[in-house]
């Protein structure tokens, strides 16, 4: 998709690409700023190359305006999600408690995996699945 965006940008030219600049920059910015662990470095490099291409194509001023608007939108979305999460914690404490328990469980499992990778002889105790017990209706 990034290659397609770059090809369309070059094909449209300087004047016709300006209205679509923020639309094109949004996924490129998201890829550049992502910090998840399984990130593909080739995608990051490709997005950086396309951003440089767009910068040369439309000029620094137009590019800077579009890029800053994309940054602003991303920051607003991030702040909105954070605010909604905080409100949900207050409005629905049971859901928040379940989310917290799940997060702690995942953290413990991650810690066990890390210990096993560092010390291969050590086997951490794993949570055993009690399928029938989980199915039973317990109050």
TrEMBL record:
<dbReference type="Pfam" id="PF23099">
    <property type="entry name" value="UTP20_C"/>
</dbReference>
<dbReference type="GO" id="GO:0030686">
    <property type="term" value="C:90S preribosome"/>
</dbReference>
<feature type="domain" description="U3 small nucleolar RNA-associated protein 20 C-terminal">
    <location>
        <begin position="1"/>
        <end position="116"/>
    </location>
</feature>
<dbReference type="InterPro" id="IPR057525">
    <property type="entry name" value="UTP20_C"/>
</dbReference>
<dbReference type="GO" id="GO:0032040">
    <property type="term" value="C:small-subunit processome"/>
</dbReference>
<protein>
    <submittedName>
        <fullName>UTP20 protein</fullName>
    </submittedName>
</protein>
<dbReference type="InterPro" id="IPR052575">
    <property type="entry name" value="SSU_processome_comp_20"/>
</dbReference>
